[in-house]
Amino acid sequence: MSSTPRRAHSDRILFLVTILVGSFLLFLVQPMVARMALPLLGGAPNVWNSAMLVYQALLLGGYAYAHWLGRFELRTQGWIHGGLLVLAGLTLPIGLVDLPPAPEGREVLWVPLLLGLSVGPVFFAVSAQAPLIQRWFAADPEAGQPWALYAASNLGSFGGLLAYPLLAEPLLSLQAQSLGWALGYGLLVLCVLACVYVRRARAGRERGFGEDGAQASAPSARRIAVWLALAAVPSGLMLSTTTHLTTDIFAAPLLWVIPLGLYLLSFTVAFADRRAPARLISRLAPVVVVLGGGYAMASNGIGGLGAVALSCLLLFCVAVALHTRLYDLRPGPERLTQFYLVQSAGGALGGLFTALVAPMIFDWSWEHPLLVLAAALLMPLRPLLGWRERDDIEPGMALLAQNILLALAIFLAWQLKDLVVDPAAGIWSVLLTVFLVGIGVLLMASRAAFTALVLIAMIGQGGAWTVLSSWRGERTRSYFGIYTLRDYPEQRMRTLAHGTTLHGKQSLDPAQAHEALTYYGPGSGVGLGLRALPRLYGPGAHVGVVGLGTGSLACLAHPGQDWTFYEIDPVIRRYSTDGTFTFLRDCTPGAQVVIGDARLKLEDVEQGRFDALVIDAFSSDSIPLHLLTREALAVYTRALSEHGVLLVHISNRYIDLDPVLAALAKDAGLAAKSRLDLPQDRERYTPSRWIALSRSEQILDDLAAQRPAMDWTALPEAQGAPWTDDHASILPYIRWSQLTGTP
């Protein structure tokens, strides 16, 4: 019996392991570097999108290098790529480069620069190995087709992505993560060299690819354009889904992992040798586009967890359908590296549009519905009901029926637009949605009519309210978020929301315009603390506030006090300086507003500068880990006077932060008390939890002893180590039961 099949099998295992190791490392490094940069960048969704844009650009560069390398003999390719891997390895272990702080308004460019310089060399080298390894695998005529290795590559990427939040971050410090990644990189280098050796030993049996694959016919410009589009739309949709979900639907922890994971899994299905799953999902994808795409314009929490599930299902089905079409249009192995280069360019274009262009030209995440409509125009449409192809239906009658169906869809969407915001609508909203989906199935015979139906469904499922908000100019978008400013004439109230989270409100009644509302009411921890300052520190207390919001806290100031606000987003400051919210102008006209990351800015203030420091800088419901670490607390306590008080806002729907603050307080030797405020007037005030910390336990006792008496409770017993810049994980503190409800 010949040893050739056995040897080919062993070779396949070697190449498979190499692909898996490289892809695992590639997607393990992404969240690791983003976590390293957190103290500099904060936790806005666009930070993750910027990181993804950098990685897609580096991936494109790696694929271009792999395509260029294909002009050489395999032995030469091995020497060149091995040398590149060794040179890139000299930059290990991974760490951030030292850059000057981002200029105001330039974060969208500064963040990619920081990440690119920090991780660029090793990411570039590792990203090239996927197409190279497939090319080297296919160089043996008996090896078989290489496309299944690409499916395995994305499976490895998915594994790396999940391993970080579930294993690496909870169990290892950043230093240990970086060292572990460097060891994995060494293993990858050995695997790559082994692949080179295997193919070098069989140099006489290589497939003759020729110069740049010249013996294979070049793809047409139209074919390349289709490749680009089929790669760009899923890539952009993955990022837009992340922004849409975390900003407007359900700002839950770790939610960003899900869209990227589904995107990677779509390649595993679309490029697998077994074609049945890809065909089935592609066949059902148009139905999912009508059902899930209807929520693509929804905002302000419409749909809750159900909308999250549909959005994720939509992304997965669209990505599988478009990537399956991409697979069907693939060239022969001779053009493998060119195919992956174009595909990578499409992915980078989708990321560029979503992460860089959209935030600068749109006031809301309009890129999301636009990409869903683009998917409807590109995906394979195989009618589930072939009624238009029947011989007894004339073309004119079929067109008339199509137009009647579209008119009916418009009527249903018009009825649905008011029901989606009515909690009592119940079954009627569901029935109208089902009818819209049924019409979508009937219209699959016409791509134009089907795409129009998807747009109609979007308008009905909350899109009408989103369009109206933009038409009225209620929204503003910056690098740090999407803000909605809304007036309620009947209640004489103006509100500011970041995604689904209320950031403050002000009464439009002049007699009540200076009342601090929402989380800052008279029974809130911060309200009690700031009102006690004259009694605790005299009339000239110095107060620092991290997070400006609407400026509500300004009207808790007393005459003679010195106030300083720290705000990362210039858009938020503009709301207080242009008269939109007048708290700052009316109550603390002399207050200084410092723009930039508060933790970095506070490092520059003189020691003991503040008698009270308020930390109120949450972005939507995301957790700014870098503001709740041992190092951050050291910055705050340095800025506080000897007996100063630190007031930290930890209200959150999904994370229990009491134990986090308890561990930090114990580690720093600080006294701490907690205040949970459950106001009776829920129209004006919002339940909140504030933590007061001080070096002086007497100060906290005096704070709790004010009249009328308010309950301040002890923090729970500290469990585990405190969060640090080097090691922090939110997994142990997630309120999992909250994730099953509508926020």
Automatic annotation (TrEMBL):
Keywords: Membrane, Polyamine biosynthesis, Transmembrane, Transmembrane helix
SUPFAM superfamilies with a match to the protein in the record: S-adenosyl-L-methionine-dependent methyltransferases (SSF53335)
Highest taxon in the source lineage: Bacteria
Transmembrane segments: 12-34, 46-66, 78-96, 108-126, 147-167, 179-198, 224-243, 249-272, 284-302, 308-327, 339-362, 368-385, 397-414, 426-445, 452-471
PANTHER family from the UniProt entry: THERMOSPERMINE SYNTHASE ACAULIS5
Protein name from the UniProt record: Fused MFS/spermidine synthase
Annotated source species: Novosphingobium mangrovi
Taxonomic lineage from the root: Bacteria, Pseudomonadati, Pseudomonadota, Alphaproteobacteria, Sphingomonadales
